Amino acid sequence: MRSRLTPFVVSPALLLVALAGTGCQSGFGTTDPTPPTPQSISGRYIAVLSDADLAATGFADGMLSKPKADASDALTIIALPIAAEPTAGTPAWDTGYAQAPVSNSVMGPPTAITVSRDGSFAVVAETREQPAPTAKRLSELPVGFAVTPVDLSDPMNPKVLPKVEVGKNPQSVDLSPDSKVLAVATGQPGGQIVLAPVTGMSIGAPMAWPLMGMENDAVSANGIAWSPSGRFLAVTVADKNLVAFYEFTSDAKTGEFELAPFGRPVTVGKFPFHGKFTSDGNHFITTDLQWGADVKDYLIGAPEGTLSVIRLADQNSKDLTLEQRVELIHQVVCTTTVGISPECLAISPDGKFVITANLRRSMLPAGDPGLIGGSLSLLSFDSSTGLLTKISETPIDAMPEGLTFDASGNNIVVSKFRSLNPSIVDGELDFYKLVRGSEPKLVKGDFSVGVGVGPHGVVIVR
Predict the structure, then answer these.
(1) Which residue of 102, 113, 228, 399 has the fewest CB atoms within a 10 Å radius of its CB?
(2) Which domains, from first to last, does the chain contain?
(3) What is the rounded CA–CA span in Å between residue 233 and residue 262?
(4) Could you give the CA distance from residue 212 to residue 233 in angstroms, rounded to a whole number?
(5) How large a percentage of the chain has pLDDT more than 70?
(6) What pLDDT score was predicted for residue 316?
(7) Rounded distance, CA 273 to CA 297, Å?
């Protein structure tokens, strides 16, 4: 059944929950094969970005067509737990939700949003600005230069704060583990790495660094991620097939930041769009999309993607000189094939599983013989060896963009930028349970949450 609710603040699209089958089920557990229920999705709230300016087919035909002419970019907040299926005498929707107008773009990794650990503050990268009314093609989307902070101290009343300029084409953002430093990956020549102090809800003056250790300073940094300790930053450079690691320090007296190369840049698989540190900080895993100028339409003809696992060099190296730390060697210990165009990556909180959201050919227009939906690849991870083992690939009748585990680590949220079901115009969130045990697998929930046009980056605040 499908329940239609109050219109969004920004878009006339409707927030809704769709449930199928027999309704909610009990018996939630990490080895229980029954589907997840709305109430089993744990955490404080879900935050999801929606890009209303671009239809998924734009990646195939280059045309800038809006799925809904009157829709706008937004940040949507959904309180947890999600309400149960409505019954006679109960409200159609009693889950709290809110939406704020925040310019964002799917034209980058699904890491365009970061939220502070306490959930009170978010930052969104404006990779591309809003198009002019006369814009017809994807190439006419103006390049962005800013990030947008959002006050989420009251998540059901988000307050959009003034933008902060950080440089050309910001693609990824990440707040340090203590939420005191914002890191941004940009395409600004000679200033691809940007750090800014954060005090409360205020972003201080940004400071920029080049991609130290690389010859060409004209390439973009695509992904950026803090290590769990907050001591290191990893930066992916897709056009160079490289990952660079940097050591961060802050002067206690002056408050000034310093950034120095930590080891040599590492060559990984083709087009590493972004990556994540494992929970122990010993490994960094990249998503290698295999895109490029030698691929049909840059991405349409891409083969199966890969994941590269980098084991970091000895981190107990503070007794080494700067010159010695720069020369440390990080090792690629595993490369594993996953689905086509694995644009997003999620690592379970216990570090034992990795999931990728694979676009496959889901951007092709309806009627194209090559059109197929996306998929989710499930892999196990051995933190002692760094080895990944592929378990399964689950098809999705949609274009999956963002992934996040919930607070329990047992459920996964998947944002669907486009559904291949012609009756579904708005984007939705789907939910899967990670069933563990001797035969791990993903089990889809019998419900979804509509969040308006074009959802991509998604996080759960735990």
Answers:
(1) 228
(2) 2-461 (2.130.10.10)
(3) 9
(4) 12
(5) 91
(6) 74
(7) 17
Q: What is the pTM of this model?
A: 0.92
CA distance 214 to 82: 47
* C-alpha radius of gyration, the chain, whole number: 21
Strand pairing of 181-185 and 172-175? antiparallel
Report the C-alpha gap between 308 and 305 in whole angstroms.
Answer: 10
Provide the b/e sequence for 135-162 (b: ≥16 CB within 10 Å). Answer: eeebeebeebbbbbbbbbeebeebebbe
Sheet with 304-311, edge to edge strand ranges: 272-277, 283-288, 304-311, 331-340
Q: Is the dihedral of CA 365, 371, 374, 380 positive or negative?
A: negative
Residues linked to residue 393 through DSSP beta bridges, in sequence order: 377
Best-predicted range by mean pLDDT among 86-100, 216-230, 354-368?
A: 354-368
216 within 8 A of 239, measured Cβ to Cβ: no
Q: What is the pLDDT of residues 415-457, one digit of tens each?
A: 999 999 988 878 899 999 999 999 999 999 999 999 989 999 9
